[in-house]
Amino acid sequence: MSIHTGYRMDRMGTIYLRYVDGSERPATRPEVLKVLTERPDITASLTTQD
Questions:
Q1: Sign of CA dihedral 11, 33, 1, 7
Q2: Residue 10: inside a domain
Q3: I need a labelling partner for 16 at 20 to 30 A (CA). Which of 7, 31, 37, 49 fits?
Q4: What is the residue range of 29's domain?
């Protein structure tokens, strides 16, 4: 298992985990919750489009 080194969020709000080798994948729900819990400087908001 690779160690993730960072994350990014796209325009649609999907969080991706980045790995040492440069690859990335969408984060799972538990991983998103972990990022939001461990990083109080990151906030998430839910929006709807009509």
A1: positive
A2: yes
A3: 49
A4: 4-38
- pLDDT tens digits along 21-34: 889 999 999 988 88
Reading the block at residue 5, the tokens are 């080194």
pLDDT at 48 over 80: no
Which pTM value belongs to this model? 0.64
Amino acid identity, position 7: Y
Helices (H), 1-50: 29-38
To 5 degrees, how large is the angle CA 12–CA 32–CA 7? 70
Domain count, the chain: 1
In which residue are the tokens 């969080």 written? Answer: 15
